[in-house]
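Practice problem: predict the structure.
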Amino acid sequence: MTAPTTTDSEYDDIPAVPDEGGRAQPARYGVVALAIMVVVGLLLGYAGGLLTPRLTRPGDSSVEAGFARDMTTHHAQAVEMSLIAYRSATLPEVRQIAVDIATGQQGEIGAMQTWLREWDLSPTGSQPPMSWMSDGATVKDGLMPGMATPAQMTALRDARGIEVDRQFLTLMYAHHLGGIHMIDAALGETDNDEVLRVAKTMKATQQTELNNLRQLQAQAAKG
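Answer:
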């Protein structure tokens, strides 16, 4: 399971974003630059995983393997939503947090996929999604906690103007809440030092982003 890919043409001709004075401001990052940043984040995640020594290897049905597989899928949707927001959002702050989420979570995907390779496990596995969670969390309509539905993703792609910002912020806020629920489950059930370290970093990052998303929701509501 890997993050969705996009073509350069899909994100060409991104309009400048006006500031509060009505002046057109260029995007902070070009599309090619953002694509490079996402790839670099993925490669750094792979490298981080490769540098971690493995004394024991989790099995195919382990908490660690389930978390890595499911969180990869979860992160992949966050990256996709963030690329849409980067392309079409109106507020510069929303475009910036979209960049931060896309690059950060792509790096974490790289780390988790490296774990699976180092453990000699398939990236997909044979267990149903979320089966590693002991709290009985269920998959609803094939989606893990906080994930957007296909209809919501279509609406985000089709949105225009400030509505892009509003939909993205709403969807990503729910997405992060669901992700933190999954992270908490992994933290409570694994004793793998590397998984603990990365999961704690994920949680801290997403908690900070939740606060920022909430503030941006108030800003977008005025727009």
